[in-house]
Amino acid sequence: MSDKLRVGLIGIGYIGSLHARVMAENPRIDFVAVADLNKDLAEEFGKNYGCEVYTDYKEMLSREDIDAINICVPEDYHVDVAVDVANAKKDFIIEKPLAKTYEQCKTICQAVEENNVRMMVAHVCKFDPRYATLKEAIRGGKLGEITSMSFKRGNPTATATRLNGNVSFFYYLGIHDIEMMVDYNLPAKPIRVYAQASNKVNGHMNDLDTAQTLIEFDNGSVASYQVGWAYPNNSAMGILCTAEVVGTKGASMIEIENQGIQIMTEEELSFPDTLHWPDYNGEIQGDLRAELDHFAKATLENQEYLVDNTSASYAAAIAEAALKSIESKQPVEIEL
Question: Residue 96 in contact with residue 316, Cβ under 8 Å?
């Protein structure tokens, strides 16, 4: 392998577009190819970034000079694409969630193992200094054994309207926090989930407003989680999320909304995000940049990825169980 990681991108929607730019700006990455069903869009990206263009990603996978693949397709297509990439003997990074069910996650992980390739799930909170610092405190024993956790993430209704019921907020928003809760609590396994939800604002799109979820782990710890996208669109929202972890020796709280900057105009008051993928000094900075740089460096140097495939799979199992619980109005047992 050369001193640069030669990467092909599959899927150039909203998040794929961000990944493309960050890869093009990264000195460790040679962004060589892009694949998307939208030929015009793919050709536009090919022209902008000087890479080869494909409408059939399988043609791109046949190239021996591509070291790794970045998968940014919608989660409904994760299994087929990831298995094809693994069968092509390519290492890859795949946008969260790994898949929508635990069985689908197992299918992808099995393909990765059988083909002796490596996979990293793009859980960006791993590269948020607040969540990463809390993880180090937990791993260092400062909090003792985890007894309880309480997380929350919210968005305005505009997010739900834009997605128009095409994806659950458990997969689009909630998977971030669910995966962090699981990771903090490893090697404990989630064993039971009970969730309830409302749909007074987004029900016309066959979508939910907010869900409250209780999670029980096999080490005796419990967690509560609130996720929703029914806040008013005119609210001064940046990224609204909280995290609380309580242990036998201590506790920690994360609160994120106003990140130290406010921008006031005649039209709105906004709290810009300064950490996930802020754009300043001519480049995208922050967690997404750190995530893709870590993937490139770890792949080039054969180092361990910071994202654990087990926690990514358990998180999908919890999201799957929560949706089943909302439908049945009963607790759902998880078998892992």
Answer: no
Residue-range definition of the domain harbouring residue 215: 126-284+313-333
Name the β-bridge partners of 222: 148, 216
Tell me the one-letter amino acid at 229: W
What does 246-300 look like in DSSP terms, one character per residue?
A: EESS-EEEEEES--S--EE-SS-EE---SSSS-EETTEE-HHHHHHHHHHHHHHH
Note whether 199 and 116 are same-domain residues. Answer: no
**Look-up of token digits 């591509």:** 66
Residues 229 and 243 sit within 8 Å (Cβ to Cβ): no
Q: What letter represents residue 322's amino acid? A: A
Q: What are phi and psi of 150, to 5 degrees?
A: -140, 115
Amino acid identity, residue 204?
A: H
* Contact between 96 and 119 (Cβ < 8 Å): no
Domain boundary among 93, 122, 151: 122
Statement to judge: residues 117 and 162 lie in one domain: no
* Domain co-membership, 113 together with 134: no
> Do 32 and 153 reside in the same domain of the chain?
no
> 110: how many CB neighbours lie within 10 A of its CB?
12
At 30, list the tokens: 């040679």
8 A C-beta contact, residue 99 and residue 105? yes
Say if residue 200's pLDDT is above 90: yes
Entry pTM: 0.94
Contact 208, 225 (CB under 8 A): no
What pLDDT is attached to residue 66? 97
Helix ranges (DSSP H) in 4-128: 14-24, 39-49, 57-61, 78-87, 102-114
Q: Is pLDDT above 70 for 236?
A: no
Give the integer Cα–Cα distance in Å for 177 and 245: 12
Apex 191 CA angle, 109 and 104, nearest 5: 25
